[in-house]
Amino acid sequence: MYENSGNTTDQEKFLDQSIRVVKAESFEMKRCLDKGKTMDALKHALQMLNEMRTAELSPKFYYRLYMDSMHELQCLEVNLVQEYAQEPAKLGNLYECVQYASAIIPRLYLLVTIGGVFIKCGLGSRKEILKDLVEMCRGVQHPLRGLFLRNYLMQCTRSVLPDFPETEEMLVAHNDNLSKGTPKLKPRDGTVDDTIDFVLINFAEMNKLWVRMQHQGPSKEKEKREKDRMELRILVGTNLVRLAQLEALTEEMYVKDVLPSILEQIVSCRDPISQEYLMECVIQVFADDFHLATLTEFLNACGQLQQDVNIKILLIALVDRLALYTTSYNEGQPAPTKMQLFEIFSEQATTLIKNRPDMPLDDIVALHVSLVSLAVKCYPDRQDYANMTFQGLRQVIEEKGVTDIEAFGKVGRELTKLLNIPIDEYKNVLRLSQLPEYIKVMNYFDYRGQCNIASYMIQNMLEEETVFRNQDDVDSAFSLISSLLKDQEKQSSDSHETEEFADEQNLVARLLHLIRADDVDSQFLLLNSARKTLGEGGRHRLRYTLPPIIFELYRLVLQFSDMKDEDDKWDAKIRKMFVCAMGTIGALVSTAELAELPMKLYLNGAITADRVPFEDNHTVVYEFVSKALSILEDDVVDSRDRVRCLHLTVGTLLKTTHLPEENWQPLANQTVLAAAKMFKKPDQVRSLVTVAALYWHGQTLETNGEKMKNGKKVVDILRKAAKIARECLEPLVQQQLFIQLLSAYTYYYEDNCSEVNVDHIEELIARTQDNAVQLDVSAEADSLEKQLGEAIRRLQLAKLDVAAAQATTIRSEPELPQPPS
Question: Which of 195, 470, 487, 577 is 20 to 30 A from 399, alpha carbon to alpha carbon?
C-alpha cells in the first residue's frame, strides 16, 4: 500500500520534505495569483499536488500532508471564484488546460477544484459536472490516494450538491398554474435524486478502495493494515453522513433507493471490518423513522454478513436507539403497535444465537440486556416480554452448562446490567415477583453476585419507599433477597467476617422498617412472620436483623396505647406484643450469643412498658429489668462493658415510675450488689456512687410521683464506697476516688440530705489533703489538686447555703403565746 513502512522518525522526515515543497509551491502560486497570472499559478499548483503522489507515507502522515495541501487549494478556489465571478466564460479554457496535465493525481485534484468553481459561478450543468467528476476519479485505483481524492471531491462539492425535491416536470406544472404577474420559478439544475446518485457512487468506490487495502502487502503485516484501515474508516463514513444531512431526503427515497444500495454494497464487499463499521454508521446517522420503516430489510442484511462480524454490537445499538426513540416519542403514549419491535428483535436474537454456537456467553447476555431494556422501557405493561427474555437466556445458560457465574467477570458484569434494568425501570421491586424467570436467572450467579443484586434491590426499595402492606408483599420481597436472609450453598465459611456482609445486613435491617400494615393487628402479624423468617438466618445475621423487629414492636405498642377504648382485648394484645419482643431478644442471647445488645433491648422494653398503663405492666417492667441484670451478671465479661451496662440499668430504673415498692427494691438491691461485685476496686467505687442515686431520685408506685430520698441508704452506700476507696493502693487513683466521693457527699448535702454528716465530710477532706501531700509532682497531681480545691470551695458554699436556709426557717416560725403570769 505504501512502500516505506519505517519508523516514526523516517515518516516525519519524508513528511517534512513534502510539506516544504508544498509551502514553496503554494507561495509561488499565490504570488502569481496576485499578479493575475492564473496559468502560471496552476502550474505551481500542479507542482504542489505532485507531492500527493508519494508512496512513502503511512495513512496518518499522508493525512497531514493532505490537510496542508487542501488548505492551499481552498485559497486557489476562493481566488478563482472572485476572479471569474464577473467573467465566468473564461473558466472554460482553464478546465480544458488542466486536463492536459501529465500526472493523474494532480490533474484530478485541480479538475475537482475548478469543477467546484464552475458550479459556484453558475457555469455549465451542475448535474453533468458532478457526474463527470465522480466518474473521472475512477482513474485513481490506489487505495490510499483514491480515498483521499474522493474525500476531497466530497468536501469541495459539499455546499453545491442539489438538495431540492422538485423535478423539472413539477416545476413546469407549477409555473403553468401561476396567475399573471406572479414571478415564475427558475429551473433548478439537479434535484436531490442526482445528489443521492452522486454520493452513492462515490460511497461505493471509496468502500471498494478501502476494502482493497486489506489485500495488499504480505500476510505478516495484516494487523498493521487493519490498524491503518481503522484510521481511514471515517473517510468512507462521511458519505453516509452527507446522505443523512439531505433535507429533501424522504422516507420513501430512503426505503426505495438509498438503503438498498447501501446494503447491497455492504453485503457484497464480504469484508468483516467494512461490514461492521458501515452497518453501525447506518444505525447512527439516519433518522429513527427511517429505521422503523426498514427494520426488516436491515435485519435481513445482518443475517447475510460475514461470520466474523460482531452482529451483537449492531443489534444492541439498533435496539437501544429504537427503545430510546419509542420512549421519548410523545411521552406518556405507548410504543407504536404497528411495528412489533420486541417480537422482531427477539426472533432475530434467537436466530443469531442459534446460527453462531461459538458466540461468547458475555455477548449473549449483552444481547439480552438490550432486549430486556426494550421490553421494559417500551412495553412497561407487557411483563411477559421481559419474562420471555429471561426465559430465553436461562435456556441458553442451561445448554452451555454454566452453573456458577462470577460476579466481577465479563459475563457477571453483563448479567448485573441485565438484572438491574427491571429494578431501575419498574420503580417497585415487588413487580419482579411477577417475573418467575428473573429469580432463576439470578440464581446462576455465585454467592457474591446474588448478594450484590439483592443489595441493589433493597437500595431501590429504600429510595422509592416501597412499603409492604400485606403478607404477600413481605413474602415477595424476602424471596427476592433470600441470599441475604439465609446461608447459601455457595457461601464461603468466612463470609460473615467481611465488610460487605455487615453492610448488606444493615440494609436488610433498614428494609424491615418499611413493613407498614394498615392496622395494628395486621402489623403485628407481619412483624411476627418476619421474625420467624429472619430467625432462620443464623447467628451472624441475627445481631443485625432482629433489633429492628424489636424496635418496631415497641413502636407498635406505643401506637396501640392510645386505642384502649377501641379494642376489648387491648390489655391482652399489649402483653402479647411484649412477650413477642422478649422472645425475640431471647434469641439474640441464646442463638446469636450476644450480651450487651440484648441487655440494652431489655432495658428499652422496660421503659416502653412503664409508659403504657396496661394491666400488670409492673410485672413486664420487672421481667425486662431482671433479665437485663441477669445478663449483666452472667454474660458481660469485660470490666468496662460491665460499668457501662450498670449505668444503663441505673438510668432505666430512674426512668421507671410505676413499679411497686415490692418489685422496685429487689431490682435496686441487685443493682447495688452488681456494683459491689465489679472486678476492679475503682470501678466498684464509681459504680456505687452511681447506684446511690437510685435511693435518692428513684420513684415507685407508692411515692406518687415524688422522689424517694432515702438518705440513710444513700449514706450507707457512700460509706461502703469510701471504705473500698481507702483499700486502693495506687495514690493517684485513690485521690481521684476521694475527690469523686467528696463531690457526691457535697451534692447530697446541697440537696438537703439530713443524713449526710458534715464531720464525716471534713474527715474525708482531711484524708484527701493528706493523700495529696504524698503524691509525686506531675501534671495529673496538679490537676487533682485543682479539682480538690474546687470541691472544697463548693462544699463551703453549700454550708453557707444550708445555714442561710436554716436561719430563714427559724425566723419564719410563729412565736408561741406567753403563759399567763
Answer: 487
Residue 523 lies in a domain: yes
- Once rounded to an integer, what is the mean pLDDT over residues 619-630? 94
Q: What percent of the chain has pLDDT over 70?
A: 92
Helices marked H in 727-778: 731-750, 758-773
**Whether pLDDT at 409 is above 70:** yes
Q: Is residue 722 in a domain?
A: yes
Q: What single letter denotes the amino acid at residue 347? A: E
Residue 541 inside a domain? The answer is yes
Provide DSSP, 326-339.
Answer: HHHTTTTSPPPSSS
* Domain harbouring 692, CATH code: 1.25.40.660
| pLDDT surpassing 70 at residue 331 | no
**Residue 9 and residue 17: Cα distance in Å, rounded?**
13
Question: What is the rounded CA–CA span in Å between residue 366 and residue 415?
Answer: 8
pLDDT tens per residue across span 701-737: 888 888 888 999 999 999 999 999 988 888 888 888 8
* CA separation for the pair 151, 59 (Å, rounded): 14
d(CA 406, CA 423): 21
Residues 733 and 723 in one domain: no
Question: Within this chain, do residues 616 and 674 fall inside the same structural domain, yes or no?
Answer: yes
CA-CA-CA-CA torsion sign (174, 176, 181, 185): positive
Rounded CA-CA distance 496/541 in Å is 8
* One-letter identity of residue 617: N
Is residue 565 domain-shared with residue 617, that is, in the same domain?
no
Closest CA to 764 of 735, 731, 732: 735
Q: Which helix (H) or strand (E) holds 479?
A: helix 471-480
Q: Is 515 helix (H, G, I), strand (E, B) or coil?
A: strand
Is the Cβ–Cβ distance between 97 and 39 less than 8 Å?
yes
467 with 541, same domain? yes
Residue numbers of the domain that contains 501:
457-488+496-575
Residue 759 lies in a domain: yes
Query: How large is the average pLDDT for residues 343-354?
Result: 88
Number of domains in the chain: 3
Cβ contacts of 405 within 8 Å, gap of 6 or more: 411, 412, 415, 444, 445, 446, 449
Is 80 exceeded by the pLDDT of residue 815?
no
| Beta-carbon contacts of residue 764 (< 8 Å; ≥ 6 apart) | 722, 738, 741, 742, 745
pLDDT surpassing 90 at residue 694:
yes
Average pLDDT value for the chain: 87
Q: What is the mean pLDDT of residues 453-479?
A: 94
Is residue 475 scored above 90 in pLDDT? yes
Among residues 707, 727, 747, the one where a domain terminates is: 727
Same domain for 598 and 718, yes or no, is yes
For residue 659, give the 3-state DSSP assignment: coil
Length of the chain: 821
- Which contacts of 17-26 are long-range, i.e. CB under 8 A and separated by 24 or more positions? 18/51, 18/54, 18/57, 18/65, 19/64, 19/65, 19/68, 21/47, 21/48, 21/50, 21/51, 22/48, 22/51, 22/65, 22/68, 22/69, 22/72, 23/68, 26/72, 26/75
* Residue 679 near residue 642, CB atoms below 8 Å: yes
What local confidence, expressed as pLDDT, does residue 821 receive? 40
Query: What is the Cα–Cα distance from 374 to 370, expressed in whole angstroms?
Result: 6
